[in-house]
Amino acid sequence: MICETIDPKDPKESGPDVSVITQRGNLAEIVVAQLASRIDSGLYGPGDKLPSSAQLCEEFGVSRTVIREALTSLKVAGRVTARQGAGVFVTEKDAKTLNFEISRIDDIRSAMQIIELRLGVELQSVALAASRRTPEALAEIARAYDQLESLDTTDAEIEAEADFDFHLAIAKATRNPHFPRFLEAVRGEISLDLVLKHRQSAGGYQAYLKKINKEHAAILAAITQGDVKGAKNALALHLEESLNRYRAMLDEPATVAEE
Ligand SMILES: [Zn+2]
């Protein structure tokens, strides 16, 4: 749906030079630059509501798709926040502190894609681990769990590695060598997601770690008890939350929770 700007507005009010925007080029980027400069200049202050998509669409003379793309970009960069049903607001915190690698849409997409893949593989991995576990394999999973839990670091990569090792120990407990081999093969991609998650948690890092440990504890408990269904549920809970958060950032529909 295109809403063209038909009648020229009062130049004092319309702000950006509409003729620039109608030129070829990445329209969304131009809209992002315009909106970002309004936020930087304080025209839209912290906590202020942005004009509606329809208003922006009309003002910039671009399609809704372009506005949507521009807003996603600003959301991902941490400049604005969408509140369900209320609209889009300028982020309260200093935008610079939020501008991590997470601001790169490609990184978010990669992280999301690897979790989609992990869900498929690791649901089977925890199920097999729960039914085939040996005391040795359980001890190794428990060791990996303790390792992450006792970690005293704010280094994203060290923490990501400890998280990965926990999942790797489970993969080994399947007694099917392809599971650990497969996880090792995508270790780099998995780490990207884990590091992004860690960085997103900056500020609430201890709470983040506590939450991860609690989720890992639930997975470990279910595997220990040989509870296949419980292990799958706990793993799904562990992975789906971040998957849905990434999807929300990219404006993609969330997974419908499995019964
Ligand atoms: Zn984990």
From TrEMBL:
SMART domains: FCD, HTH_GNTR. Pfam families: FCD (PF07729), GntR (PF00392). Keywords: DNA-binding, Plasmid, Transcription, Transcription regulation. GO terms for molecular function: DNA binding; DNA-binding transcription factor activity. Residues 25-93 form the HTH gntR-type domain. InterPro entries: GntR_C, TF_FadR/GntR_C, Tscrpt_reg_HTH_GntR, WH-like_DNA-bd_sf, WH_DNA-bd_sf. CDD domains: WHTH_GntR. This is GntR family transcriptional regulator. It comes from Sinorhizobium fredii (strain NBRC 101917 / NGR234).
